[in-house]
Amino acid sequence: VHSASSEQQQQDCKSLLQEYYKFNHKEAAPFTGDNLVYFLHIPRTAGRTFHSCLLRLGTPGRKRCPKAYDHLRIDFKVPKCNLLSSHDDFSVVEQLPDDVAVISQMRDPVDRFLSAYEFAIEVAARQLRRSRNYTKPRNRVVTDDVWPWSYLIPYFAEDIKPKMALVKAEPVMPPGVWSEQRSDEGQVYYWNKYLNMSKWTLDESEKQHLVPNLDPYNNRMFMPLAEFMRQPIAGSCCTTGSCCSHWEGAPQLRSCMLQHADIGQELLNFALRRIEKFTHVGATDRLFESVESAAASLNMPLDGLAYGAGEASAANVERARSLTWAEAMKAGEVPLPQHGDDEAAYDPSAGSDAPDVHQLAHDARKKRAEVSAKQRMWNEAVEADAEQARLRELRGELNAARAELVEAQQQLVQARGEEAKMRKVLEEQPQKDKTLELSLGAEFQRCATRAQTRNKARKKNSLLNLRLTDYRQVYFSREDRKAIPAALIEEIKQLNALDVVLHKHALELLEKKRADHTTAGKLQTLPPVAVAQQHRAHRGKLCGA
Questions:
Q1: CA–CA separation, 305 vs 63, rounded Å?
Q2: How far, in Å, CA of 415 to CA of 428, rounded?
């Protein structure tokens, strides 16, 4: 019976694999210079730096697609933009034009898994400081909205909060206790909370009161790495195939892949063939070389122009409803505009300077609700035979609320009229490309350096929320990773066995592409970081003169 059941399961998996092939029949097209480029952004591969500091800066603002990390905001059939990026997997290509070119970055699977674990904890720790009445910024995509963080961050936040409450309830360590700390430069020093004193070195008597170093991957403040890697959420968000798939059979196929080696091998071979058709495949562990190769593949001279901010206003946002892929796939066709009375097609990320129609519509709805509430209060007072003074007070409040509603509605109508005029102007007049003062290569170095500095500071401040009463805290450094038991590292490799092979092949493709570009005389090297910094300092002196 067991054998028959196993055979049926394998047959079901093979049928599912054939469905997958039918769904994924489209392949990446070569880059022509004019077709849409889709950046398949695998999480934790330095894709944000790659996208923000190279792809966006190398693409004029009018050609950039609107932000798409929460959901796509383009007409799938006629995008009217040339650069799209999201955390989706290759299934998104099925809904894009036939001539879409695809690029991607990969990373050593162990480093990527650890980075995802660390980042989810970092952001969850940041949320510990949020007030109870915190509300998400409107018209802005935040980390919590983006897959897989929309799952991982709440997961760790729920794990961390009760554990940190217990930690904070622990008694403060006695006066003589010292803990090891690290400076921004990574230098080790020692801190005594009670004495409010720090030292670079401790004498022998002080060393006796030095608490053991904190293991960032195994402590009582959050779920240990060994426990997390065996959770179902780790398998669906962090291991092999870590991109959001819009094919409904993806979870079942993942299960088949893990249970049947032949299915996994067939999918691996399929993926290896597929990435060979990508315009560019790079690797995080060779980021700068990947940037140089990608720039050559996409005809973005590193000594050429870099472009300023702003996504495409003409990316057909005015015609396409902002749909999640799940809705689009379920409909089985290109989504059509469907705007309610109080909603507008305006997308503030598209670079328009029109009034915020979404905000004005929200205000009008709020005023309408206030009028309804005042009307109910008036009716109840009349039915209760309230005193005339109270009725006059309520009547005055109701009239004032109605006047505010009329004003809000007039502002909304006026804003929609201005927005319509602005769209017409944008359609009739070509947009001017805003260029930056340095070359693309120098701007990349400057942008990447700023991003690294900003991320480092944000990470430090976030992890300050994760420390014990003796002031030992979490760092997540390279040195900490080296101390992870070899058995755990090997288990992560096994969980990501297919990605290990893909990453290796990506490095081979990168090497071959760089050789081809060198032979063709297209490969340019990035300028040293110091050059970009010198340009920046020179500009500062001129501006201050």
A1: 15
A2: 20
Contact indicator for 312, 66 with CB cutoff of 8 Å: yes
pLDDT at 243 over 70: no
Say whether pLDDT at 206 is over 50: yes
CA distance 396 to 398: 5
Q: Please report which confidence band the pLDDT of residue 427 belongs to, taking 50, 70 and 90 as the band edges.
A: low
Q: Which of 471, 430, 2 is nearest to 192 (CA)?
A: 471
Strand bridging mode 188-192 / 179-182: antiparallel
Amino acid found at 230: R
Q: What's the CA gap between 505 and 108, in Å, rounded?
A: 11
Cα separation of 288 and 304, whole Å?
17
CA distances (Å), origin 13, targets 260, 273, 298, 499: 9, 21, 38, 21
| Distance separating the N- and C-terminal Cα atoms of the chain | 86
Structural tokens at position 82: 């040339």
What is the rounded CA–CA span in Å between residue 384 and residue 247? Answer: 59
Burial 64-77 (b: 16+ CB within 10 A, else e): bbbbbbbbbbbbbe
Q: In whole angstroms, give the CA distance from residue 404 to residue 398.
A: 10
Q: What is the full DSSP assignment across 301-315?
A: -TTS--B-S---TTS
Strand-pairing partners, residue 475, are none
- Closest by Cα among 85, 90, 148, 84 to 115: 148
| Interacting residues of 435 by C-beta distance below 8 A, sequence separation 6+ | 305, 306, 307, 308
3-class SS at 198?
Answer: strand
- Facing residues of 280 across strands? 103
- Whether the Cβ atoms of residue 296 and residue 313 lie closer than 8 Å to each other: no
**Separation CA 437–CA 290 (nearest Å):** 24
Q: 245: pLDDT confidence band, cut at 50, 70 and 90?
A: low
- How buried is 5 (Cβ within 10 angstroms: 0-12 exposed, 13-18 middle, 19+ buried)? exposed
* pTM of the complete model: 0.73
Other beta carbons within 10 angstroms of residue 86's beta carbon come to 23
**Tokens 């409010």 found at:** 196
Backbone phi and psi for residue 308, each to the nearest 5 degrees, phi listed first? -80, -165
Q: Give the torsion through C-alpha atoms of 371, 377, 379, 380, to 10 deg.
A: 160
Instruction: Give tens-digit pLDDT for 25-39.
Output: 889 999 999 999 999
Residue 529: both structure tokens together: 């970081």
Task: Check if the beta carbon of residue 93 is closer than 8 Å to that of residue 287.
Answer: no
Lateral strand order in the sheet of 188-192: 179-182, 188-192, 197-199
Tell which residue, 532, 535, 498, has the closest CA to residue 106: 498
Side chain identity, residue 540: G
CA–CA gap between residue 356 and residue 340 (Å, rounded): 16
71 close to 324: Cβ distance less than 8 angstroms: yes
